[in-house]
Write a structure and sequence with these properties.
Radius of gyration: 19 Å
Largest sheet: 8 strands, mixed, barrel
Structural class: alpha/beta
Shape: globular
Organism: Rhodococcoides trifolii
Protein name: EAL domain-containing protein
Helix content: 40-55%
Oligomer: single chain
Bound molecules: ligand C2E, magnesium ion
């Protein structure tokens, strides 16, 4: 289906995804150059403990400082990066950047800073046999223990036994594994038996509808299952006080969303922590 865009360009959209194919192709070209030009940056979103509201972890989310289109969220380009394979290079850079940042945070904030940074890995990155080596090299370079770098994986992406094997390796190396967008996959329950996740993130689509009764019951059901399996739960995409209160009552251990903090640069986060700790002391 083609139609004229505002700029007089013919827009051709992919039938299944609605993505503007011409723009996607352009971004694909730009991505190859972006890696060489160092145009990526990592934003960090706070993950707070439900009881104390203290930031106990962060999620690392890649951003692209596009020279023409400005700062692009991962949602705007990560699928293209996966399709073109650039995601492997970007992912390596993200891993090293996150380890570097964790080192500076641990040096400045110690136990009062976040203890875990979660990175997102696509299924494609899990297929790369040198992933474990790259992770190990960055951990060593910045003197970070694997326990401090968690790995989020969207279970619906996993189709190959090699990917499961790689997750088991990462788990054995000491990385906490987390199932992202939990509940949206077609095989959530069987996946739980295939790899040793210690954490599941309730997808935002379940949180958005809260405090609606039916949504609240789905959250309760996920919590009951997680408890039976000894898995901790993060609720993601919390945007309102009302949603936070339902989650607090559910027994969910951690919370994440715009209500608690948007993804931001490491420097911005450091400022809030410095301000926060001095406010407590002074
Ligand atoms: P995700 O891991 O499920 O990350 C959550 C997404 O929701 C992020 O979008 C985040 O900015 C956004 N978000 C967080 N809180 C809220 C909220 O309260 N309300 C709303 N409406 N949105 C919220 P982002 O950064 O565009 O990332 C999109 C996806 O791209 C991520 O989904 C993740 O699957 C992937 N991704 C991000 N960074 C990386 C990376 O470094 N490597 C790989 N392979 N994938 C990445
Ligand atoms: Mg994630
Ligand atoms: Mg998610
Ligand atoms: Mg997602």
């Amino acid at each position: 289906s083609a139609k004229q865009s505002g700029r007089g360009r013919t827009v051709v959209r992919d039938h299944s995804t609605g993505v503007d194919i011409g723009y996607a192709r352009q971004l694909g070209h730009d991505l190859a150059r972006a890696v060489l030009n160092d145009e990526f940056t990592v934003y960090y979103q706070p993950i707070v403990d439900t009881l104390s509201h203290r930031t106990v972890a962060v999620e690392a989310l890649v951003r692209w400082n596009h020279p023409r289109d400005g700062l692009l969220p991962a949602a705007a380009f990560i699928d293209i990066a996966v399709r073109t394979g650039v995601v492997n290079t970007v992912g390596r850079w993200v891993i090293d950047e996150v380890c570097k940042t964790m080192r500076t945070w641990m040096d400045e904030f110690g136990d009062t800073g976040p203890t875990t940074a979660y990175i997102n890995l696509s299924a494609r990155e899990l297929l790369d046999p040198t992933l474990g080596y790259a992770l190990g090299r960055s951990l060593a370079a910045h003197r970070i223990d694997a326990a401090h770098i968690g790995i989020e994986i969207v279970e619906d992406d996993l189709s190959d036994p090699i990917q499961i094997a790689r997750l088991l390796e990462l788990h054995d190396l000491g990385h906490p594994l987390s199932i992202d967008d939990f509940g949206t996959g077609y095989s959530s329950l069987s996946r739980l038996l295939e790899f040793p996740a210690v954490l599941a993130k309730i997808d935002r689509s379940f949180i958005t509808g809260l405090p609606n009764k039916r949504n609240a019951r789905v959250v309760e059901a996920i919590m009951a299952m997680a408890k039976a399996l000894d898995i901790q739960v993060i609720a993601e995409g919390i945007e309102t006080d009302e949603q936070a209160r339902v989650i607090e009552a559910s027994g969910c251990q951690m919370m994440q969303g715009y209500f608690f903090g948007v993804p931001q640069s490491s420097h911005e986060l450091e400022e809030t922590w410095r301000y926060g700790s001095s406010a407590v002391i002074g």
